[in-house]
């Protein structure tokens, strides 16, 4: 189940008709039993935010929250 930040970003993009523009890159590092996840949120191929955490969903949520903040800031400045 998506976390609050991820769900909020998805809902925002869906309302704008841009959900298809979102893509994710994922990477992990460290030992297999305790990896650190890095999730990169991209909108139309442009990196908007990167989140890093011990759990993949938390890293994605961090990146999603920052991406949403940036998108809303861009919209306010138009």
Q: How many strand elements?
A: 3
Order of helices and strands: HEEEH
In percent terms, what proportion of residues is strand? 25-35%
In oligomeric terms, what are we looking at?
A: single chain
Helical fraction: 40-55%
Looking across the biggest beta sheet, what order are the strands in? 1-2-3
The pLDDT mean sits at 95
Largest beta-sheet characterization: 3 strands, antiparallel
| Class derived from helix and strand content | alpha+beta
Q: How would the global form be characterised?
A: elongated
Radius of gyration (Å) = 13 Å
Distance between the termini: 33 Å
Key terms:
single chain; 78 residues; alpha+beta; three-stranded antiparallel beta sheet; 3 strands; DRBM domain-containing protein; dsRBD_dom; RNA-binding
């Amino acid at each position: 189940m998506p976390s609050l930040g991820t769900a909020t970003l998805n809902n925002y993009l869906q309302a704008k008709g841009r959900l298809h523009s979102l893509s994710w890159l994922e990477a992990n590092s460290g030992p297999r039993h305790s990896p650190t996840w890095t999730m990169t949120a991209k909108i139309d191929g442009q990196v908007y935010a990167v989140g890093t955490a011990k759990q993949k969903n938390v890293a994605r949520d961090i990146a999603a929250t920052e991406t949403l903040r940036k998108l809303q800031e861009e919209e306010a400045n138009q």
